């Protein structure tokens, strides 16, 4: 039996992942880990062993090696002292998935993938709206087109992989946040964690 229980949270940009993660943390006692946030925090740490490498990848627009991302996720799990984790926005591609399987075998069990499905137009509209106040540099039309293309070509195959393992719980991300959360609760209540 692995040490940690993990729920991956996947969906396109603006599909509602962050909003639903906040609700789950509040009501179910999960620890929410965002791969992107962990990388940004690590880059800022003065004594980081990975900081310069992460900075180089971010500057060049390349993907940070999965070993680094997995080691940051694992460290965050160990430091939390908790057992239940929501991991948001990871794995994003096959390399991430393979790296996770290698690094976390016997350490963490993926119990479910919450997949927030939303049309591209709804995702774009939400992100452009969020961009007016979020301060996020990637909430603009040009970045969104790239993000959605990457999501369709790289992340959808990951969701399909977990579907073959009967681990995907698909949520209609176009409903109101409260309606979506009702569906999320139904999925989590069946998990018995």
What do these coordinates show?
This protein is α/β, with parallel strands linked by helices. It has a single domain, classed as P-loop containing nucleotide triphosphate hydrolases (Rossmann fold, 3-Layer(aba) Sandwich). It contains 8 helices and 5 strands. It has a 5-stranded parallel sheet, sandwiched between helices. The chain is globular, with a radius of gyration of 16 Å.
Ordered list of secondary-structure elements with their pairings:
Layout: E1 4-11, H1 17-28, E2 31-34, H2 35-44, H3 51-60, H4 66-80, E3 84-88, H5 94-104, E4 108-117, H6 120-134, H7 141-164, E5 168-172, H8 177-189
Parallel strand pairs: 1-3, 1-4, 2-3, 4-5
